[in-house]
Write a structure and sequence with these properties.
The structure is a single chain. This protein has helices spanning about 25-35, 60-70, 75-90. The protein has about 90 residues and is mainly alpha-helical. It has a domain at about 55-93.
Length: about 90
């Protein structure tokens, strides 16, 4: 049997509502909740940030990671260290 050379046209699909999460989470409500919880600082412009290498004992870094993981909002060790520096600077004023 010979195949037809006529191309099949795609079926028209009804527009679907876009889901931003595979779990159908209301992302706007979730974002608002996170912002109100204070667990994350507002993002800064990358031009306002600097990168550098920090040498730190493995034991201290392990403790930092443990404290960062235990905090609500699941922040990174980098963010935890940055917040600790800000808190220390505020106390020294």
């Amino acid at each position: 049997m010979r195949k037809s050379s006529i191309a099949k046209l795609p079926h028209e699909q009804k527009p679907r509502a876009k889901t931003t999460s595979r779990h159908n989470v209301d992302v706007l409500k979730l974002k608002t909740l996170v912002e109100e919880s204070g667990s994350r600082r507002p993002k800064k412009n990358r031009r306002d940030q600097s990168k550098f290498t920090l040498r730190i004992d493995t034991e201290i870094l392990d403790k930092v990671r443990e404290k960062a993981d235990a905090r609500s909002g699941n922040i990174s060790a980098n963010q935890w260290i940055a917040e600790a520096i800000e808190e220390k600077l505020a106390r020294l004023k």
